[in-house]
Amino acid sequence: MDFPINTILLKTILEDTPAFMGIYNISTHRYVFINKVGLSMLETTDLDDFTAKYPRGFRKDKLNLETQSKIYQHLKENQTWIEDTLFETSNHLEFWGTLQISMFESEDTQYYLVRINDISYQKKAEQQLKDDNNRFEALFMHSAIGLIMVDREGVIILSNRFANVMFGYEQGELEGKQLEVLIPQNIREKHRETYTNYTNKPQSRPMGIGLDLKARKKDGTLFPVEISLSHFKSGDKPYYISFINDATFKKKAETDLLIKTTEIQKLNNSLEKEVVNRTNALVETLKNLEQSKKELEVALNKEKDLGELKSRFVAMASHEFRTPLTAILSAASLIEKYTKSEDQEKRERHTQRIMNAVGNLTDILEEFLSVGKLEEGKVNAKLANFELPKLVEESTNDLKNMLKKNQQIAYQHFGETIVCLDKSLFRKIIINLGSNAIKFSNENSVINISTEKLDNMLILKVSDQGVGISEDDQKHLFDRFFRGANVTNIQGTGLGLHIVARYAELLNGKVFVESTLNRGTTFSIKFAL
Questions:
Q1: What is the pTM of this model?
Q2: What are 207-248's pLDDT values in tens digits?
Q3: How far apart are CA 173 and CA 48, in angstroms?
Q4: Which of 45, 207, 217, 317 has CB 3.0 to 4.6 Å from 168, enough for a Cys bridge?
Q5: How many Å separate Cα 211 from the centre of its chain?
């Protein structure tokens, strides 16, 4: 085919371009020219071979008439159509390409000038980056040890959740601050010198071996720590990671043991000088040793309980996080496939799946953190007067987002409306019991919530028409991590009712349960005012 264009220029533009270049006759729906790069890309020898192998084109998603018309109209108005799309060779090999189409006219015939750049490597790199980020998130942010990453100037780039909780900061609050905010004031100058020496000759090692290291919390409190250091480079920029462990309990145990050892040594010296009282002193020593043994046994048992709790946390987290993380990954992968405007409804549906999964993760983390604070004795009741019906109605409004199809929440109050309790803890009790009632009830059911203020007592009741709880399961209902035999197929951590019972105890309350299998459950909490 002859075109009214300089032959050398045509060769430069079409043949010497390192991409697919083709000329497409709009009226005949056929390519009239494809350069050598394009023919090679599609594993064809010439134009006839291409036409035979690709009678309907080589896009993975074949264009319908409506889309073809849309592209044609766009080109008439805007001159150029550009999109990233997936192509497929006759041998079913897929590759990503940036498609660029422009329209021109020659001798009263309209043509498309088509250019395709292979971007498969770029797409693969983008996916690899996403996978790397996901793995980094899992390893760094959810690690059960404090991790803080800084640059060469000592500016905090990233801190994980464990470190934020350890130092008393909110998520993201430490980022951008100097590392020195975590260093005691009296040793900051020495720390600058040590840090400079380390950055000049970095190596992975424990820090301050044999030293009594302390760190500073947000509120200024100092506490003992154990620190290990590591380093890496991203491009030409060096970064440094601190692995931080709160050594408060360990230091206390070491101090107690040292005190006991010192006391025994003093007693032995006294025995050598006081022969007359040697027998009595020996008896006293044995008593002290026995007491020390009991104290150490108590300390070891507490450490064992704490280790078991952490192990259960890790096991539960690894199991419970898998479902929402899988949903997020699946939805995110599907969203990438819906690139057209008419796919907006599908993208929104998968986006909602991601939001729901993130909500589930947040609820699981909240339960883990609540149990941790309760076990450490960090939760205290702050009593104040408030209007009870208003608080319950606000809480039920929050629960409405969780309701299944045609589920309802009915609330009524009896007696005086003003009570003196911890407003935050009471709200968490309602949310926890209400969400359980919704979760374990079917559609078209009613969740009944009632409060009654008597002279010296407040009674809260939450009733559902759900699966119920067997008598055997009721005996262990408030144990940590316990889940009923008939709800193992429903997602949960087994911590919710344990938390409710502990909160009720802090508010001078006691929890009662009445339940029949497949007929429903009623939780009652009686608070002494």
A1: 0.39
A2: 655 567 888 999 989 988 888 888 888 888 888 888 888 888
A3: 64
A4: 217
A5: 35
